[in-house]
Protein 1
Amino acid sequence: MAGDEQLVKTRVIKINSEESWNSFTTQAKNEGAPVIVHFTASWCMPSVAMKPFFENLAVTHQDILFLVVDVDEVKEVSSKMEIKAMPTFVLMKEGAQVDKLVGANPDEIRKRVAGFLH
């Protein structure tokens, strides 16, 4: 079918349960891989607008695990991570949150990610 070639495989993994959250974050911790999580909601326009930016960031930073959590679909994770507003970006290292950024601010996220890696 025409148009199929436009499907780009995303590096952002969608978390659909607390189990998958635990699995991916534990694996990243064991591998020493940093994690960046985009907490989003389908009804939140700033969150939706940040999606392509987050996808591009994931392509740029192959050594980071990028996760996306819909707060309405996986409430256990969003409450455990104390997410109060969308979008919220959480940076994790060794299983622990090291930084949290609330709001759609691509420049600030880029800056934090750069600082996160070095």
Protein 2
Amino acid sequence: MRPSPSVASSGDTAAAAPRMYFIPFPTPGHALPMSDLARLFASRGADATLVLTRANAARLGGPVSRAAAAGLRIRIHALTLPAEAAGLTGGHESADDLPNRELARPFAVAVDLLAPLFADLLRSRPADAVVFDGVLPWAATAAPELGIPRYAFTGTGCFALSVQRALLLHAPQDGVASDTEPFLVPGLPDAVRLTKSRLAEATLPGADSREFLNRMFAVERATAGWVVNSFADLEEKYIKHYERATGKPVFAVGPVCLVNGDGDDTLERGRGGEAAAAAEAARVLGWLDKKPERSVVYVCFGSLTRFPHEQVSELGMGLADSGANFVWVVGGDDKSAHAPPVLQADVDAAAPGRGLVVRGWAPQVAVLRHKAVGAFVTHCGWGAVTEAAAAGVPVIAWPVFAEQFYNEALVVGLAGTGVAMGAERGYVWGGEAMGGVVVGREAVAERVRGALADEALRRRAGEMGERARRAVEVGGSSYEAVGALLQDVLRPGRRSQ
């Protein structure tokens, strides 16, 4: 459901129109929710500018253009990534477009070189607030002479943030003898246990965690508050915990994907107005229309994961063995060196009429909302977790890297809206391509069958979906959080602080 177009919350003044910039790290997992966030605030009366690289501007332009045509004050400002100055060749302007891990460092340098361009933008067109991606610390300090308040968009939930902060500060992982020995994460509201094999890169042995910790503290000092794509019923204890730990307010305004209605915004999300995207969306949804209710498992590992061919093969055979219907989004495209050799003909031979292969992109929010979908195999990126929660769909969690194992712990261990696929080790991003088989076909088949048949799991996920939708409605926790942030931006003296 779309939030009400009124400014802020029920007690706010409709005349206020704060000018706000939204700037994400250039990759779909960050840019998509930030685009939704910008439209959410525009729908509540803000004058919103979404700052993107040109490649992501092309992908995300459709919903923004439609919102502007409908009368909202929203636009995209496109920046050209200084790729050549960073030694980055190939025209890559989004992290998911990088053909290998080796280009990640020059890409990161190119992203840092956006800092003066963003500062110039702020000076030429000042704003009342900046919502910056938490992994872009330079956005928090650009044009300091203007005194513009900055709010950090965390990119993940408060549970994962709390876990990561505790690991960096207290390093309990250093006190265990092996990668598989469980340890307690200290200082959390719940007893959360992890292993070294399930930690994010910054806390792995040999990582420069001190540099990451310093960056974390720098962002904490610079931000006026945290903007989180989450909602109270999903992780209320951790929203309050993170406020106490950092001393900064948390504005939990999600799930932001619910700003998309049931029309073109949802069908084209992440692919602009491409004719091919519309055709692919129609193909996928038409296939789902022919399947019984809650009979399909949707399989997608986001825009960055690239499994080795052996793991892709085991996954495919497990899906076939499960007896379930499935829509399987395979990473990469036909020209990519990472594109696994999965063809529709292979799936048809192994699971006649039961499987649909999608290469690279699918209308994920629309698929998850479809009545035929009964479970979601996901890497547990936070965007995917919140989209599943919003749709009321159970998760089969298969984390791969970064904070994804922490998200699994929330979904499976605390919220009870998912089950674990059985992955016991993670990777540094890019390393999964050499990781061999982590989950075999038997486990895949068993977990898929079990999740689709688990009525209690389906009920808990459905209840979470209802709570998510209520959160964004007038008077809901997320609706009020949007209003509270707008009031914070507009309060007297804020610009001078």
Protein 3
Amino acid sequence: MSLQDFQNNSSPVGEFFAGQTVLLTGGSGFLGKLFIEKLVKCGVREILLLLRTKKGVSPEERIKVLLKKEVIFVNYATQPELYLSRIKVIEGDISKPGLAISNDDLEYIYSHTNIILHSAADVRFDESLHESVLTNVRGTEHLLRVALKCPLLKVFVHVSTAFSQCVYEHVEERFYPPSVDPFELIRAIEQDTRMEEFEVMAKKIIEPWPNTYAFTKSLAEDVVHQYKDKLPIAVVRPSIVTSTYKDPITGWTDNFYGFNGVVVGAGTGVLRIFHIYDEYKANIIPADIVINATLVAARYAADHPLEENVFNCTTDENYTTWGAVRADCMSQKSLVAAKKSLWIPTYNTTRYQLVADFLAIFYHLLPALLFDLVLRLRGQKAQVLRLYRKVHRFSDVLRFFTIKQFTFGTERMRTVLDQMAIIDRHLFPCDMRSVVWSEFIINQVRGCREYLLHEPWEMNEEALRINRRRTVIHRCMLTVIYLGFGMLALRLLAAAGIPDLRFYLGCTEFAT
């Protein structure tokens, strides 16, 4: 939706945000950037952007670089002041005590904030429990303390994940009791200096959750729940967030996390075998659906503060399967190619882990050794085997979510969607029933190529030519390999005293 669409049309959700001051965490992240773009279009008075100094670069410089670099800030090139006049950087760190915000900035936040959007999180599945708790749990609790001192606050929105409760096969739109007391865990981490011993126990502490991310997000939800009687709150739980569907541009993403990594890995010939149940529901969701649903849910929660405002933002009302996703992705292999590819796309799946592990030897390990040998002969650094170690760690992390069937209740989210005004459905499209999956997957493949591999469409024809040459080489190599296996099988049969096919052919001729 364009800026003109918002300026020319008045809508209930747009009016809720217009002229408001929004405190946004995670503004430099994937969802955070999309929030900034949408809030600017809504005509907010100010975005208080919580950012930390990173690699010696100040928060102010970081946001300037971000606005110039990212194509989703679609009006920045022609109207930079549209963004710069609305963004006020607040230096802070969600993982530090008290968020590391100065007293002057805190006072400004207290006196001006109307809406808090908390989308910051440590999303690494393999992060230590210590760091994950400090960012995802304690950071959320400290932000809630800030919210208590904001007299103008209309709503506090916590962006969680649908897999915060992944220990259940069916997840309702409600708060769940935590497995441990989040406040006791925070105190234990803050007081215990023996972090190495603590991390040894971490796996036992988080069971049965598969990783520290999902576990700490479940604890963060409980922290939010404990503030429910003090603040107007909302929790939005998206499933696996992937690239945009249409808003503000098609197929945009900025990271290799989750499903994006699978798409890029398969498209570049790196990921060639994956353990997955093809018939299971693919719990992926376009990022712009999540952004719009969050903003719509925020307005609803502000108007209904006494309800249990937990919203599952998932695909249950209109889903596709992992098998259908694979077919849609592979339909593009003769139409879209990338120069930054290891080999041709040959993405295979199996529901059996032993089969996946066995085939990985031939699809991943042996080709990696061959590629590294070629690199060494050229005097270059061997790096393909190291790449595959990362691929296998990535696959191990995702396996929990690709071989289990999850369902999510979406009744409350559906209530919100059904109550939306017609103009809001245009300006804030977030109904999953409108998504055409084949169109989305095709655009995601092209988006990953453009925005992650940084290859403009003009390079596609050259990449396709390279891909066609590799396809010929690939088929020739397979022919040689299969002939070799065939001859080896005949020799083994002969060595075992078993007649080979020529014997049976001769018998056939004789009988004829």
